[in-house]
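Reopening this ticket.

The earlier resolution said the output was attached, but the attachment link was broken on my side. Pasting everything inline this time so it's all in one place.
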Amino acid sequence: MPQPIQPAQTLIQRYESLSPFAKVVLELCSIIYEPVDVSTLIRCLYRCEVDSETNRQDYAREIQPCLELLQKKRLINSRLECDRDIIETITRSALDSHHFHAMVDAVMAELPTEKAAPLSNTISINRATRDLRIALYTPNIEAFHHTLLRDQRFFSRTPHPVVAICNRPFAPDWFATLPDHIQFLALHEIIKSALCRLDPIDQHLKYLEHGCVAGSSPPIERHDSFLYLLISGRLLQGDFTSAADLIKDRHSRLATYGFNGWLHCLKGNYQLAIAEFEEDLTKLKSLNSNEHAYFTGVEGLLFYICLLREETPDFGRLREILSSVKTLQAGTIYQFSYEVLAAVAAARETKKDFLSLGAKDFNPDLNSIDALFLALADFWVEGRLDSELQLTLTKYYTLAVNNGYRWLARELAELLYSTTRQSLYQEEIDTFGRETETVSLLDAITHEEPWRKAIRELDKIANQPDTMEQARRERLIWLISVDPDGTVTEIIPREQKLNESGLWSKGRHLTLKKLAQQDLSYLTEHDQRICLAMRTDKDPLKGSTYFLDLDQAIMATIGHPLIFREDNQSVPIDVIDKEPELHIQESGKTVQISFLPFPHPGQQIISQFESSFRLAVYQITSTHRRIADIIGPHGLIVPIESKDEVQQMIGGVAAHLTVHSDINSPSARLKTIEADRTIYCHLVP
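Inline output:
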């Protein structure tokens, strides 16, 4: 059966069919790596002086048809950015054609790094990534390190930029030319990112084990860190035989990685696992000269589970482990998993339920490991799975099966079977268990049968106070801060309570962190839509901070009955959804065409006050932006003799936005609507 052609393959085929000049333009766009205007692109072309079979004097004439062709073939977007699925392939083509270095010199001259500071955050990130790409492809290792240090605020996020640079696509022959420490950084980040989404890693593990350069030793023979990546990858895939062979043959090099403990844990030999983990952890602390050092991968989570399942767990030590992870491994993809395991420990220690500890923080964007350990914790303490979490596990189960993560597939199958009793999950459990002689993590912690837990929970509900009564006495309002021109700059939640006089309190400020982490019973559907706009920024030094995606949050306020201005909390604001408008007005010998409100570059949401207590929100689509760019910020002036052409144009654009026109022309076949003469009165206190 033929393999389906991937989108990137189609785009590469289109690139290969281009003229030499179009290829040069696309290569230049790939190196620029950010939105660029035509004039800057032409200046870069003049500067780089590469052979494109087009005379320099023809660049200005040829560039517009060339860009239109590239956009038609979807190789660049309207902002002249190269498609991200092929951008690395195109840049590597520039290397092969010996255009790269001349293009880099031109781009750095026209768009130098130091000019990025006053620009938008998105452009700064793009330019930092551009500099990292250029340093890697040049190669200039000193510049690569300098960029990593200079722009670490951008690169501390997941996925790291080296994932896209080195993995879209992964090209072993080129990758092997990089220094070992950069190869390790890239492979570590690639495998970490793949694990979060359960993307395939077979080719990366193959490279680690065998390399690709004849006569050169493979990466695992050059450094122990590569060996760690390979073995942990094999264990996550459930290839325990290969992993055990690698561990046995290279045991002396693996004294601090916890692999033997990992294997014993999965086979249900928990006491042996603890002994192996303890031995390796002692060596790890000695190697790092740090008593707080701890395992950095899945092995650390498994050791925590082994300690937690003890008949009388050392809860003090478990708290120390969590503290070490938060301090020494801030930003790790496993931190949330440690926190939910710590909540299980707290539930065992205090005899409280999971939910009452405020520990259950479901997010549909959870990575695969977080979803697995949240589900395990949920089942161990609550005896059941949340329905939304179940959907997430189902998604990851399918990915795990399709992309070779058999151990993770088995663990997910155990959880899903315990909830759904579907036979396909039982088949996966039986097959994997029989082949590997391993047990599930679900059985590591003694948990109550779901039906028994359900009976107890129903008994509790019968004795609980009326939560609706509580909800009626508390509410959340949202305060909008605006700048002098009326643009929304911040949305602030405030918690109010109903006092004995039947009046709402002034309210207290509620942090986004508390809003994200606490289960507030009085939140309405409108509140929850705004909460969906919350984002988390993880900083290695400051920890997690919460913020609102302002555009999404503004859209979510539409129709919310409790939106107030920060400077006047007496009357709620009516937030309405509106379309941009095209105003066409006959004035003397001309027709004036205006796009209102006119969007700034990159602006997707515009908010404007129509009155003191009425806020209009406009969502700017790509079609709106094209129309606005054509009209221009100062409007378009058309001779009165051409007003029939204007009317014909109205018929085409009216499907995309509201048109207000005072032109009367019989040729346009447009419906005329009389204005509503009804007088409306808006009463405010």
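Reporter confirms the inline version is readable. The chain has 32 helices and 13 strands. The two ends are 72 Å apart (CA to CA).
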